[in-house]
Amino acid sequence: MAEKSERAQREEKILQFWKDNKIFSKTLSQSKGKKEFVFYDGPPFATGLPHYGHILPGTIKDVIPRYKTMCGFHVPRRWGWDCHGLPIENLIETELGLKTKKDIEKFGIAEFNSKARASVLRFEKEWKEIVPRTGRWIDMDNAYKTMDSSYIESVWWSFKTLYDKGLIYQSFKSMHLCPHCETTLSNFEVNQGYKDITDLAVTAKFELIDEPKTYLLAWTTTPWTLPGNVALAINPRITYAKYKWTGGIYITAKNLSHKYPGHIVEEILGKDLIGKKYKTIFDYYQKEGQVFGADFVSDEEGTGIVHIAPAFGEDDYNLSLKYKLPFIQHVGTDGRFKSEVTDFAGEQVKPKDDHQVTDIKIIKYLAGKNLLFAKEKIVHSYPHCWRCDTPLINYAAYSWFLKVTEIKDKVIKNNAKVAWVPEDIRDGRFGKWLEGARDWAISRSRFWGTPIPVWQNTNGSKRIVVDSIETLKKYANTKLDSELNLHRPFIDEVILVKDGEEYRRVKEVFDTWYDSGSVPFASRAVKELIPADFIAEGLDQTRGWFYTLIVLSTALFGKSAYKQVVVNGLILAEDGKKMSKKLKNYPELTDILDKYGADALRYYLVSSPAVRAEDLAFSEEGLDEIVKKIINRLENVVSFYELYAGKQPRRHGVSTTNVLDKWIDARFARLREDVTSGLENYELDRASRPIADFIEDLSTWYLRRSRTRPEALPKLCMTLLALAKIMAPFMPFMAEDVYRRLEGGKESVHLEEWPSKIKVDQKILDAMDETRRLASLALEARAKANIKVRQPLQELRIKNHELGKEFLELIQDELNVKKVTVDKNLGQEVELDITLTPELIEEGKLRDAVRAIQDWRREQGLKPGQIVEYKVPEQDREFFMKHKLKIEDSTNVKLVEN
Predict the structure, then answer these.
(1) What confidence score (pLDDT) does residue 450 get?
(2) What are the residues whose beta carbons fall under 8 Å from the beta carbon of 710, sequence distance 6 or more?
(3) Quick check: 75 and 137 in contact, CB under 8 A?
(4) 393 and 350 in contact (C-beta within 8 Å)?
(5) What is the DSSP letter of 699?
């Protein structure tokens, strides 16, 4: 554990101040009745601790509401918890030592779901500590939970509405199934789990019945599906060839002839192969199959002949429907061969720990039967379960679907109206995903989830779709408990009766993504608050929450669920690799907060490319730089003000004609304009970065050049208070600290309004930029001549003749020269007279003496106006006594001789 820094301790005190004085609540009550800025917060699971991947979007989701609140909007912010689904179920399975779905059923659904409910918020306490510690304001005490009855009821309402619109249907389709979870997954869930793996592909031999020793060659990357083969597919328009080679005649697409040995003895049109019969490799279910034509067959890879197993592929299943082919499902939902497959019964077809082992056994079987033509290793992208990491298998099964294809065009039109940051995601990553949208499999054959609200009669010919608890009570055959648990198995026990006929609930539960996609209407039963003005999440949610939100909202209300989206990238370890608990390749979040403080972390994140969906390699060096260049620098400015202003009354309204004061006003006007523009366009990096530049200018130019001007203190105070308001959304702790130390007018800076627009004086900004540029060139000339700045010089000549007198005086002071002369005929931009006269050397020595005494005062911890004695060094006695009055006047000391 890192020791808490002074910054972190100060932030914790401010956190307590906010809590004790209910500042967040006051910002909401202050804006009540004003126009609402609608914001949805995507619900996380509380089964793990918050990490950087949560803090990044969380900070984005804090900056914008804080800003909008200061702009006069009412911005309620309510936390939510995702409670259902495979993430929780997998956790409980592991803890209980349950290996399969059947194990859960033996254990008892009621007990299993009870354990799930109890574990849902196991880390709620830690979340409630860390989220506020990062400076985020959101109501976590009244969080919505997707497992609450009120939330479930809203989900039921949406399902019934969609069902009545004809957008819900039940169907038997080929989908991806997780053998461990024993449930099908939606296409966007599948898309989240692809990994590159090495698999085994085989080219198998299928002997033609009417031509012994003549074989059709079919290539497959899933050898385990071969026992379910019922047909072979060819393309009628492709030309095929017969090759003569050791052991017989082989048929493949002619275009692929270069891949196979032997010589061509005959060419055949694909259509002439249709109808031919062959011997099946496995005879567990049937002894022969037939060749059929199919347009999806290509001669670009494999053999140009596809093995058809209708239970394990979408094209296969559709072909089987077209030609009424036998449907053989030789693998169960647990991913094991059924008992009929006698040689491999009970074997996992794609084991998680060794996905090749079963394919190897199949290959050995083929080789033993002389039906293996070739085998090879291939590297391809293969889908794995997004929760348990088990390899998925294609599997035909029943599911409830939302007819996304019917509303796809409307979804795409709605997306076109949404503003995305970064902009290219709208028509790029997200837009392309929408173009390929398929019907959404919204049901899961699982236990802990929102129950699908469909009750069917005995033969399934009639249904009652329930939209509320009231409807449930209306048709229930017994009086229902007012505290009825709407989860399985209790809801399964509710029997409905209509016209004397009993109806029982289907066993499926909702995809947990349907739960989170229901946030707009389920978390706040106010449909008028759709769409949200703003949402933000990570790039992966283009395949998740962003998608389910827009699909459900379009289907239900005809419009998008949101107007504005900010998409963040991934936070990676410093070496660019994924952050890993196992590798411990990143610092603990709590240690970072204790060492650098939340403001440094917030600014580091929102000023980075990560707020534009780019990845960020997390670096403590970046945090350290922010502490040094922003936090410490600003702290020094505030400390200077406190030191020299003392207890003098704050003169906030003092006007001044000094060019530095005019410049800092113009500089703040530019800051306010840049930050506001960035925030209004939801470009947080563009909004936050100017703050660092302004603090640098305030510290290294305005304050440094104004140190000897006591009359600048009121202007400095006003500037710091205005800066605190600008910083408030980004660095809420430091903004509060500065505001309170300078006695801002309200209880908290976060109760202030956003600074009003001020006209930017571009002329003075340009002139000051030129002044600083010329000064920098002249300082380079000094450095080149190896003459320190404390050594006065006689003259600096500059070519620029447009700068006014007050700017030339600044250059004169900055360069420590007696005069600045303008000469537009000068051969270069600046020319420094480096001649050192005895008088100049004497003056330089005097400045060194003054600087040495000032350094000594700082080391002694003396206050600015405190007059003390200073013993004159014996070796410099004559010089000090000669300049006694000047030294004493400049340093507030009384010189005394030893």
Answers:
(1) 98
(2) 644
(3) no
(4) yes
(5) I
> Distance between CA atoms of 213 and 250, rounded to whole angstroms?
9
Q: State the residue for tokens 């410093």.
A: 574
Question: Is residue 40 within 8 Å of residue 562, measured between CB atoms?
Answer: yes
Q: Given the DSSP bridges, would you call strands 501-505 and 509-510 parallel, antiparallel or unpaired?
A: unpaired
Q: Smallest Cα–Cα separation from 504: which of 519, 491, 522?
A: 491
- What percent of the chain has pLDDT above 70? 98
pLDDT at position 769 over 90: yes
Q: Is it the case that residue 1 has pLDDT exceeding 80?
A: no
Q: Residues near 833 by Cβ (< 8 Å), separated by ≥ 6?
A: 793, 794, 795, 796, 797, 817
Which DSSP string corresponds to 138-194?
-EEEEEEETTSHHHHHHHHHHHHHHHHTT-EEEEEEEEEEETTTTEEE-HHHHHTTE
Residue 555: φ, ψ to 5°: -65, -40
**Angstrom distances, CA of residue 384 to CA of 265, 442, 489, 672:** 44, 19, 29, 49
pLDDT tens per residue, range 689-730: 999 999 999 999 999 999 888 889 999 999 999 999 999 999
pTM: 0.88
* Strands of the 231-234 sheet, one edge to the other: 277-279, 288-293, 231-234, 306-308
Report which secondary-structure segment, H or E, holds 857: helix 838-860
Residue numbers annotated as active site: 43, 82, 513, 541, 545, 578, 581
Q: Are strands 564-568 and 535-538 parallel, antiparallel or unpaired?
A: parallel
Residues 6 or more apart whose Cβ sits within 8 Å of residue 686? 674, 677, 678
Cβ–Cβ under 8 Å, residues 618 and 586: yes
Per-residue buried b or exposed e for 659-696, using 16+ beta carbons within 10 Å of the residue's own CB: bbbbbbbbbbbbbbebbbebbeebbbbbbbbbbbebbe
Helices (H), 369-428: 404-416, 424-427
CA distance 259 to 175: 32
Percentage of the chain surpassing pLDDT 90? 76
pLDDT band at 808 (very low <50, low <70, confident <90, very high): very high
- The two structure tokens encoding residue 567: 């998409």
